[in-house]
Amino acid sequence: MKTSQKKLLITKTRKSHNYIKRYWTLYLLLAIPMLYFLLFRYTPMSYIQIAFKKYSIVQNVWDMKWADNHGFEYFIKAFSNRDFFYALRNTITLNFLDLLIGFPAPIILSLLLNELAFKRFKRVTQTIVYMPHFLSWIIISGLALQLLAPTNGLVNILLNFIGIDSIPFLNDPSHWIWTYIFLGVWQSIGWNTIIYLAAITGINPELYEAASVDGANRFKKMWHITLPGIRPTIVVLLIMSLGRILGSEFDRPYALGNNLVKGVSNVISTFVYTNGIRGLQFSLTTAVGLFQSVICVIFLLAANAIAKKSGERGIW
Length: 316
Known about the structure:
Elements: H1 3-42, H2 73-79, H3 82-102, H4 104-114, H5 119-130, H6 137-148, H7 154-161, H8 173-200, H9 205-213, H10 218-243, H11 251-256, H12 262-265, H13 268-278, H14 282-309
């Protein structure tokens, strides 16, 4: 090795040593979340192979026999199961409506709150809309039953008082879907609004001053300054929402669902619970969960690629 190369190697080694010596505490702090993900996120992934094996509660996952059809027996069973296709349809429908209605709602609310002149009223409103985020879906479903019951619910009592027939919010499939979406928007709108308001505070105030000098009104400032200023945040949250288009939370549809609306409330998560935990078909439901995760990753990658081609940063 030449002398110049040796000197360059020694210089790089010293720089690396000095860098680690200076910032080793930050790497030590980073090791804690990395250890968490390794133990509780990546290590359990070894049990994904249950989807390709005949599950036995008395055997180690590595010793289980492989399933028929080259390990794809339970995937074939899932795709030939009528209840799974109904759950898949309901999951896509509910998540699409959530995205269509629930995604723009916090953007609109954050724009309105940002335009309020009374700061105290703004803070109070922001706190009120944020509070439902802390309520579990069990509590929300209890409130919904008390307020929206067809005979003795407060909402239907008021409707009957003014001469309007009772509305089966939670007992009719079509009404149940819109009640489900509305309650989801009500529960999550405050949290997402805080994210957008935080992004709005990062916009340079001089842009608004320049627009005022040019004679722009509030709507034009909102359209040409505020919205473009928070567009990167909107794109990131949209990509993450598209990545969950086939995902489904368990507590929300399970708590709000009932036998009268089972045809529209049964989603993949409740299908996995019914057939996996209660039906003891662990290999089948693991296969369904793996399929769901793979499709979500594909949607996430596709949405991120489209965002980058459109000139946005994406999420990585």
